[in-house]
Amino acid sequence: xxxxxxxxxxxxxxxxxxxxxxxxxxxxxxxxxxxxxxxxxxxxxxxxxxxxxxxxxxxxxxxxxxxxxxxxxxxxxxxxxxxxxxxxxxxxxxxxxxxxxxxxxxxxxxxxxxxxxxxxxxxxxxxxxxxxxxxxxxxxxxxxxxxxxxxxxxxxxxxxxxxxx
Length: 165
Known about the structure:
Blueprint: E1 3-9, E2 24-27, H1 32-36, H2 38-44, H3 48-67, H4 72-100, E3 103-110, H5 114-128, H6 130-133
Antiparallel strand pairs: 1-2, 1-3
Helix pairs in contact: 3-4
C-alpha cells in the first residue's frame, strides 16, 4: 500500500481543517510519468529549481557524450539513467521543493490512492484533535528500535550504552 506524506503551509498553523484544499499529499515511490515525460512532469508540478537542475544535467550529459564521440547506445543509456533517477526521486524532489517554500510535513498516511489518503488523514484529524494530529514529524520524536538483549558489537571498538569506558 502506498505511503503519502502530508504537507501544509506554515502560514496555516494548526488550523489545517479550515483550508483542506491547501494540504498536499506526496506519494512515496516510483513516478512513471516523471520517468516517461520528465520535463513536462516537472513543469506540471511547478518545481522550478528542479527544472533548472534537470536542464543543466541534460545539457552537461549531452555535451560530454558529444565530446567523447560516444555511440548512440551510450546516449540512450545515459538519458535512460537520468530519466530513471527522476522517476525514482520525484516524490523526494516534490518534498524538497515544498520544504523550500516553507511548508511543513504534518503527517504520514498509508492508503490506496490520494483521495483515500486525504479521507484517512482528515478522519484521523477529527478523532485525534487538531493539535495532536498536525504536530510536525521529526526524527527526534520517533522511538528508535532496540534489542531486549544487549549484545556487544562484533569488533568490540564501541562502548556499550551505560557501560564503563
